[in-house]
Structures are given as C-alpha cells and as structure tokens.
C-alpha cells in the first residue's frame, strides 16, 4: 500500500477516527486505526466495539492495500507535521511497518494485520431518513447536558431519540434526564421517520456525532434499528450500538399545572446566578430565588464561607414565592436559551419547575427544587 495525501485532509480524518479509540484497552488491535487505500480515496476506520467511525478522504493512491497502525501515535505525528505538507504513507508488509514521510521528516510505525481488525456487523436498519445538520445539532446540543453520569442507571446514560406527538403534530424528539433535571427538545418529523423505533444514543456517541454536525449545509443520513443507530455524511459514517434498556416515561415528570410565571432576561439571569454562587464552596450549593412583584432576589448563604444576594428586575405578578435550586443546574439550563427571555413556570417551592425559551414550546426543561 502506498498513497500521498495533504496533511490537513489526513489530520481531519485521523483525528475523527482516533477520538473513538479507548486510551486504555486490553485488546491491542483496538488501539489501531484500519487504513484502506483503493481507487482515489483512503478510508480510516476505528472502533471501541460499541462505536465505529469510518472517515473517507481523497488521496493519490499508487498501490492499493490495507493495514492497521496505532491511532493516537499517527494522529500526534500528523498534527506536528508542517501546514501544507504532502504526506506519503507506505506499508511494508514483510517488515510489518508503515512509513510516513513528509518533507525531511520520516517515521516508521509498527503495524498489526488488517485481518485482526473487528468490523462492526452492518445490521438491517428498519428506518432510514435524512435531516439537516443544524436540526440534529440543536436536538442533541440542547439535551445532552442532562444525561446522567450514574452508571447504575445505565438507561439514563444517553439521549432518548424517538418520534412523539408534539405541539405542532408529530415530532422527532430528544430527551435526556438524570432525575434532577430534564431536557425535552422537538423538531419537525423528517420524511420517512414515522416508524422509527425509540433508541437511547449513548453519551460517547453523542459527543462523536457533534463533530459531524458543524456544516450548516450538510444533510445527515440517519439509519435506526432496535440495536444500532448510524449517522452518515458523504465522507464520515458513525455507527453505534444503542443502550439496551427502557427509557422511563418522562411525560409523567413534566408538570402541566404550573401557573406562576416568571419572565427574565436569560443572559442577565445566568450571570447573576454565577456571581452569587461564587461564595459557596461547593458548586451544588442551593441558590434561593425570592420572587415578589416584578422583582427577583437571588441569594446564597454558605455559613462557612459567606453570603451573597443580587436583585434583578423581572416580569412576575403572582404571589410571593421562595424556592431553591442547585446553582450548577440553573446555570446549565439558562445557558441553553438562545432567545432573549427565559420563562419559568412554578407551582410551589417543593414542585418541579418548568423552563422554556420565550413562547417556544419545542424546547422544554424541568428542574427539581432543593430545600433552602
């Protein structure tokens, strides 16, 4: 195998592949990337047995072939090569070496046989549809902060993607929750997505998927089966197993009867929460919201380190209310708001609070209060 490729193109492909590779693993071949050169392009494939990413790049292929080499090392080498360099990769099958040349730099890396590399079985996908990158980006970006990190509740360690009845008809919906807060984001249902089985996309896959969604013009081909999900652009294919579990009935925790309405500038609110939370030693210290007519006082009282209060002008015309929240959760939810105003809907100081962006009901957040 021998091919030449631009350094920038190679770096993009190798960086995407090596990020899937687990740093610590007991199977040596899983630390490698499978390089396959044929025709006028090269494929880079990496896997951790749960996720597989295949990145295709244009190259000048002199001799077709395939081999596997340490993904992290290859990425580091390419990253340190000068901009604009033309990189030539040559495999010597007899010696079991891959030579990387660029200008006056020359590297030789040990290889492992391509036959040992595990390729994820392609499953029969029951549903295939396409969605614009910005739509998927919004669905996952706005929900992923609420993914649970508790390993025991493994079925909450991802984003639940499914078809649901939204405010404006059928919707493609992403939901994540860790029991303390919940995010539910809707987008118009894409064509052919109606029969999609609901799947829980794992946290690591959500992180890797984000790299496919930067181009606003891109259409992403989505394929879903009961056990796998695949997201593909013309050059990159990300395949992942889904979490084998049942996502809880989240509709039960979204409050319906919250009538006390607070409207506040989202950016001012987030900054004020951040400021008053500075005095608390732990990030989880409760921030107290004291609401009175058109006035909100945020306060933190940490007996061992100090106290802080800040007042904000808001729109609120209900009876007095005092309610406490984890400062970190409030900040994460407030930072999701793209519009100017955040609308909070309260019931009482002990009930879950609903938050949405202005009048937009396609993004709904729920946060549980804390005792203060």
Automatic annotation (TrEMBL):
Domain of life: Bacteria
Gene Ontology annotations for the cellular component aspect, listed alphabetically: cytoplasm; DNA polymerase III complex
Annotated ranges, domain DNA polymerase III beta sliding clamp central: 135-249
Limits of the DNA polymerase III beta sliding clamp C-terminal domain: 252-371
SMART domains documented for this protein: POL3Bc
Primary location class: cytoplasm
GO BP, sorted A to Z: DNA strand elongation involved in DNA replication
DNA polymerase III beta sliding clamp N-terminal domain sequence ranges: 1-120
Intracellular or extracellular location(s): Cytoplasm
Oligomer and partners: Forms a ring-shaped head-to-tail homodimer around DNA.
Function summary: Confers DNA tethering and processivity to DNA polymerases and other proteins. Acts as a clamp, forming a ring around DNA (a reaction catalyzed by the clamp-loading complex) which diffuses in an ATP-independent manner freely and bidirectionally along dsDNA. Initially characterized for its ability to contact the catalytic subunit of DNA polymerase III (Pol III), a complex, multichain enzyme responsible for most of the replicative synthesis in bacteria; Pol III exhibits 3'-5' exonuclease proofreading activity.
Protein name (record): Beta sliding clamp
Organism: Marivivens niveibacter
């Amino acid at each position: 195998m021998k091919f030449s490729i631009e350094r920038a193109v190679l770096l993009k492909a190798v960086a995407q592949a090596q990020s899937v590779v687990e740093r610590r693993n007991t199977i040596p071949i899983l630390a490698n990337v499978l390089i396959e050169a044929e025709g006028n392009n090269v494929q880079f494939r990496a896997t951790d047995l749960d996720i597989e990413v295949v990145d295709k790049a244009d190259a000048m292929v002199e001799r077709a072939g395939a081999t596997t080499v340490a993904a992290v090392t290859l990425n580091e080498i390419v990253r340190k090569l000068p901009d604009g360099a033309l990189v030539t990769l040559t495999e010597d099958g007899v010696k079991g070496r891959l030579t990387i040349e660029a200008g006056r730099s020359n590297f030789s890396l040990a290889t492992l046989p391509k036959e040992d590399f595990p390729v994820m079985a392609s499953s029969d996908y029951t549903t295939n549809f396409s969605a614009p990158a910005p739509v998927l980006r919004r669905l996952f970006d706005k929900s992923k902060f609420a993914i649970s990190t508790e390993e025991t509740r493994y079925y909450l360690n991802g984003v639940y993607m499914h078809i649901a009845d939204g405010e404006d008809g059928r919707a493609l919906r992403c939901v994540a929750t860790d029991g303390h807060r919940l995010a539910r984001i809707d987008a118009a249902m894409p064509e052919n997505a109606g029969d999609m089985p609901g799947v829980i996309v794992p946290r690591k896959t959500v992180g890797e998927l984000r790299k496919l969604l930067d181009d606003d013009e891109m259409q992403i081909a989505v394929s879903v089966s009961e056990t796998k999900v695949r997201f593909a652009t013309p050059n990159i294919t990300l395949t992942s197993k889904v979490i084998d579990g049942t996502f809880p009935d989240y509709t039960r925790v979204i409050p319906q009867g919250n009538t006390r309405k607070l409207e506040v500038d989202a950016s001012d609110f987030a900054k004020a929460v951040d400021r008053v939370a500075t005095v608390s030693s732990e990030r989880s210290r409760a921030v107290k919201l004291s609401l009175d007519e058109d006035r909100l006082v945020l306060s933190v009282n940490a007996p061992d380190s100090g106290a802080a209060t800040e007042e904000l002008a808001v729109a609120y015309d209900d009876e007095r209310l005092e309610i406490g929240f984890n400062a970190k959760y409030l900040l994460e939810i407030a930072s999701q708001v793209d519009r100017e105003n955040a609308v909070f809907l309260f019931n009482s100081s002990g009930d879950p609070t609903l938050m949405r962006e202005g009048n937009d009901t396609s993004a709904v957040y729920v946060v549980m209060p804390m005792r203060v």
